[in-house]
Structure formats: structure tokens, C-alpha cells
Amino acid sequence: MQRISLAEGSGGVESQKLLNEVFSKYLGEFLLFMGEDGGIIQAKENLAVSSDGFTISPLFFPGGDIGKLSVCGSLNDVVMMGAKPQYLTCCFLIEEGFLKKDLERILKSMAVELRSAGVKILSGDTKVLNKGSLDRIFITTTAFGEIQYKNLSAKNLQPTDKIIFTGEAGSHGALIYALREEIALQSSLKSDCQQLYPFFAPLFMNETLQLRCLRDATRGGIAAVLNEWAISSKVSILIEREKIAYAQEALGIVSFLGALELLEFANEGAAVVGVAAEDAKQVVEMLRGAGAKDAQIIGEVQKSQHLGEVIIVEKGGGKRFLEYPSGEILPRIC
Q: What CATH code would you report for 6-147?
């Protein structure tokens, strides 16, 4: 089996061969910088920019892999700023001895997502590190997108605003946890890794909607997003457990592992939405119409007596604080 060598990251003949025979085979149609040190952006409007590093283990999982994740993850971040993704930069750190067939599989996944999004690669880099210097492959991407819906911010929430969630809570994190702990799964549970722009494009085109803030619920899940928003906006947020969609398999994994909160587990294709109360039902209908079938209102914003509190109403009617996640929840989920 062919493996990546140190020479292929040296910048010489072997590097050029790797670029031409492997990277260009899958990503060539998206590259804007062939033969140059970088690409050039022509922008008429303000751009949203977001960088993210991807170190997930395992590299391949039901519903995706590190390649798909590295594209969707950064593209989704600029969508949450109200932008349509247009460009991406990619940096690959590869361990000496990494299988070329696995690299090709990763690049093929990236190509599928780039083609779907209509996004071009503005710049890129590849380094090969000595065996043992890192765990197989890390990818860093930076996304650029033109703003379509302005002034979204975690500081925008106001009392009576509604909170919407677009997916099933914690499905990505629960799956990765199960795979990492080698919990045997007899289910169809998959990562929800996907691009979010198709869901939000209709909302961005509707200037009458009063969207306050958007956030994809990745590391720390819904719990982290809502606590950050409550602190930033100096409000209290009340949510109801029975209104939050989840996969039964994900809940089962969390229950099996003990005293863990599903709402702290990551999603990679679902978002939390803050919106004015009068527009909330319309936003839910538009999201569902665009394919986010699980979208629904899960709570509301209230005046805060205590700075930045998030309260959850459990199914039995009891209330408790939904704490800001702390400690090592689950490393290397993205």
C-alpha cells in the first residue's frame, strides 16, 4: 500500500507529484491559485471569515469523515454570520506513513461538498511531519462568504424572543463517543454533518424577518450556545426538554455512559436560532420547507435576574439550570 513520505512535504519534485497526481485529481476544478502563492478575492460587499482546525478521531464515521467535516464546518461558521460561502483555504498536516488511499478518500469527500456549495479553494498548503508527531492527519480550513443578512450577533437577544433548534440534539457527538469507546451500535445513527446554507438561504433573502443570532451547535452543543448567548445579551433563556428533537439512539448512548447531558454533545449540521417572537413560526415553517424537518421552537428569552442564566424545564415539569459545559466533555469530535 502506498504511504505518504517526508519527501512529499519538502516542496520539491515529490511534493509537486503529490499535488498533481493526488490533490489536483480531486480538488483541481476548485483551485484558484495553481502556480501562484495565493488567490485573489473580488468582493462587492463585506465578507465573513472563519477559521477552524479539524482533528477528529476516528477519521471516518457513519455520515461523514474529516474531509467532509473540514468543509462543512468552516462553511457553516460563515453562514451563521449571515453569509453565503464563496471561498475556502485548506492546510493539511499529514503524518509520515499515512495511507494515500485514505488521503484520496478524504479529498473525494471534500470535492463533493465544494461542488455542492459552489465554493472555490483560494489557497492551500501541505506539510508532512515525522511519524509520531501527530495522529495521522489534521486539516485547517478558512471560509470566506459575502454577507447577505447583516448584523447578526450573540449580543442581540431581547426578552420575548424565541429560540429555535433545527435538528436532533447531540447526534454527532453521541456517535463519535460511541465509536471512540467501542460501544457496539445496532442502529442507523449517523453524524448530522451537513451544510447549513441551503436551510438559511430563504431566510437571508427575506428582509422582513427579525433574526437576532445564529450558531451551529458544535463543541459544547446546545448548552454551550445558549449559555454564551445569555451572557452576551445579559438575559435569561428558558427552554423545554420535550420540545427538543433527538435520536433515540443518541439518548441511549448518553444514558449508557452515565450522568451526561445530551445537550452538551455536539451537532455538525444543526443550528440554534434567536428570532423575534412575531417571526418565530414563519421561520420554523421556512426552515422545514428548506429541508430542516426537525426545526421547532424550543424556548424563549426572558429578563435576567441573574446574569446569563439558562433554565431547562424537564419533562416532569421540574426546572434546573442548564450549566455552561466545563471540563473535558469529549475531545477531538471535530
A: 3.30.1330.10
The residue extents of the domains of the chain are: 6-147, 162-321
Nearest to 192 by CA among 55, 294, 49, 102: 294
Give the C-alpha separation, 327 to 148, whole Å.
36
Instruction: Say which residue the cell 424572543 belongs to.
Output: 161
- Of 212, 247, 230, which is closest to residue 308 (Cα–Cα)? 230
- Which CATH number is 162-321 given? 3.90.650.10
CA dihedral 214, 217, 223, 228 (to 10 degrees): -40
Query: Quick one: CA dihedral 204, 207, 211, 212, positive or negative?
Result: positive
Q: Which residues are within 8 A (CB) of 221 and not within 5 positions of it... i.e. 6 or more apart?
A: 169, 170, 173, 262, 263, 264, 265, 266, 267, 325
**Measuring CA to CA, which residue among 235, 216, 254, 223 is closest to residue 326?**
223
pLDDT by position in tens, the chain (length 334): 899 999 998 889 999 999 999 999 999 999 998 777 888 888 888 999 999 999 999 999 999 999 999 999 999 999 999 999 999 999 999 999 999 999 999 999 999 999 999 999 999 999 999 999 999 999 999 999 999 999 999 999 999 999 999 999 999 999 998 888 776 666 788 999 999 999 999 999 998 999 999 999 999 999 999 999 999 999 999 999 999 999 999 998 888 777 579 999 999 999 999 999 999 999 999 999 999 999 999 999 998 777 789 999 999 999 999 999 887 666 788 8
Identical topology for domains 6-147 and 162-321: no
The residue type found at 198 is P
